[in-house]
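Appendix B. One record, verbatim.
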Amino acid sequence: MHDATPFFYCLTMNGSNEVLISCNELEQRRANDNLIILDCRHNLSEPGAGYAAYLAGHIPAARHVDLDRDLSRPAAPYEGRHPLPDSGTFVATLCRLGISNDSRVVVYDDCGGAFAARLWWMLRHWLGHDEVAVLDGGIQAWSRPGRELEQTAATWSPAIYDADASGAGTVVETEDLIRLLSTREAVLLDARAAARFDGLTEPIDPVAGHVPGAVNLPFSELLSEDGTFRIPAQLRQRFERSLVAQTAGDVVAMCGSGVTACHLLLGMEIAGLEPGKLYVGSWSEWIRDPERPTQPPRAAE
C-alpha cells in the first residue's frame, strides 16, 4: 500500500502536474519501494548506442529500455519504422522489467524526453498506468550538480502486471487520418525539425516533405535552453498558435515514426490541454504508398 499523496508533480512555477518530476524530487523519492527508474536513451542511426551510454553512466538503479526491442516491433512493409508492439508483448515487457500495477515509474533520456515520452505515452495513455512521469531535463539535469551515476547494469526480479494494452481512442491509423483531414476534423501536428518538414533534408526516410495540411511544431520548441520543459503557460501559447480555431482534442501528433510525436502529447498534458491522439505510423508509414500525396510533391518514381 502506498499513501495517497501525489507522487509526481511538475517543478514549474505554474502549479502542479503529474507528468513531470524534478531531479530534486526524484533524489528525495529514490528510497520508495515502488519506484522504478527507466533509462530510455537511444540513437536512431546507431543501434546499441543507447545501451552503451547506459553502461557508461546511468541514474543509480535505473533499468535500460530499448526503443526497437521493447517499445516497438519489426515493421511490416506497409507500416512505419516503429509500430507499437502487440498488447501482450508489451505487458510481458513490463513484467520482465519488474513493473507491477503498483509501480511508480520515472522515465528519462538525454534528449529532452524525445524517447522517454514514447514510453510515458505507452504506459499512461495506451495502457492506463497513471503513475508514470518524465524526468525533467533528463540525465543532463541529474548529473549537472554532480549527482552520482552508476556504471554497472541494474538487477531486479520480474513482476506481474495485470492489464491489457488496448489504447482505445488514443491511436489514429492511416485510413482514419485521411478521413479526418478530408473532413477537417483533425489538426495534424508534425514534431520533426522544420528542415525535414519542409523537405529540405531527410536523413532517415526515403522521401522528404510532409503530409499535406499538417502543421509543423518541432518538439524542440517545447524545451528551454537547459533542456527542461517550458512553463505550462508558454506551452499552451505555443500550441494555441498551431491549433488556430480548433481544439486540443482534435490534435493528431505525428513525426517520423511515432516516437517524438509523443513528446508533443506530453507537452500538451503539461500545458493542461485536452489529450490528443497519436498517428503511430507517421511519415515513414504515410510514404509507403506512393499514391498518398506529399508536400512538396515527391519526384516521379
